[in-house]
Amino acid sequence: MAALLASEWTAALGKDGFSIEAAYYAHHLHRGTAQSDQDDPGMLEPEAQQLLIGWTEQLMSGQSIPQGPLTARVRQAAEWMTRRFGTTARLFAIAFCREVHTYLSKPDSARRAAARRAVADAIARTQPKVIVAHSLGSVVTYETLWAHPDHDIDLWVTVGSPLAMPTIILPRLEPATGGAPPRVRHWINVADVGDIVAIPRGGLRGHFDGVEKDLEVVIHDVDFHRMVNYLRNADVAALLTNRR
After folding, report:
1. Three-state helix/strand/coil letters over the chain
2. Euclidean distance between CA atoms 65 and 225, whole angstroms
3. Cα angle: 165, vertex 168, 170; to 5 degrees
4. How far lies 195's CA from each of 41, 44, 167, 182, 191, in Å?
5. Which among 7, 77, 186, 219 could disulfide-bond with 56, CB atoms 3.0 to 4.6 Å apart, if both were Cys?
């Protein structure tokens, strides 16, 4: 899977002489969810249901989902996602909350350690000067770079990052109050104006010391979170390829 992602991402970047290596960790967070459960937020664990509710309320600009039984509230959240962003976004949101909960539920979990180790091993093997971390990968990479400050990174680019999500991700990070990871010289954050994962709006600079710039882009009218669409964006490509 890492090789497939690397091939797709390199092709999306579309710059001669540049290649991307991928660190793959998703298999460490997969719990063998049945196909029939993927569209039902009521099948999420209670903590993951709370994540979906909290995330949806942030997207609703501070509105609250009416109080009531947890399963009813999470299904209302998923229905709002469907009406606002479509069925694909609903499926993504359920899967995302399941993965986030699996990763963050326990600070010392074997799954969390294995995901970080996969990223640390990829960094040790390739010794990159530039790292691009997408979506939940920005969370895993943030913790990895703090836990394994073994290599100088000239540029770290976070894209579509949920690192600053209040109550959901930010207070659960290890370390929770850290800034730029050690030995990272430059940190730039990029988010599409409509990316539903890059919450709260406005970027990361107000939440993490060491973020040099929050770059707002438009990568796609409706598909505003996929890594390949970020890499196809001219501003993102310039960030990555103008450094040697």
Report:
1. CHHHHHHHHHHHHCCCCCCCCCCCCHHHCCCCCCHHHCCCHHHCCHHHHHHHHHHHHHHCCCCCCCCCCHHHHHHHHHHHHHHHHCHHHHHHHHHHHHHHHHHHCCCCCHHHHHHHHHHHHHHHHHCCCEEEEECHHHHHHHHHHHHCCCCCEEEEEEECCCCCCCCCCHHHCCCCCCCCCCCEEEEEEEEECCCCCCCCCCCCCCCCCCEEEEEEECCCCCCCCCHHHHHHCHHHHHHHHCCC
2. 24
3. 55
4. 21, 23, 19, 28, 7
5. 77
77, 58 Cβ separation under 8 angstroms: no
Q: At what angle do helices 87-104 and 110-126 cross, to 10 degrees?
A: 100
Q: Which two tokens stand for residue 103?
A: 């990763």
Taking only the tens of pLDDT, the chain with its 244 residues reads 889 998 998 899 988 888 899 999 999 998 665 544 568 899 999 999 999 999 999 999 878 898 999 999 999 999 999 999 999 999 999 999 999 999 998 889 999 999 999 999 999 999 999 999 999 999 999 999 999 999 999 999 999 999 999 888 999 999 977 789 999 999 999 999 999 999 998 899 999 999 999 999 999 888 889 999 999 999 999 999 886 4
Mention every residue, 6+ apart, whose C-beta is less than 8 A from residue 10: 18, 19, 20
CA distance 57 to 170: 16
- Of 115, 92, 30, the closest CA to residue 225 belongs to 92
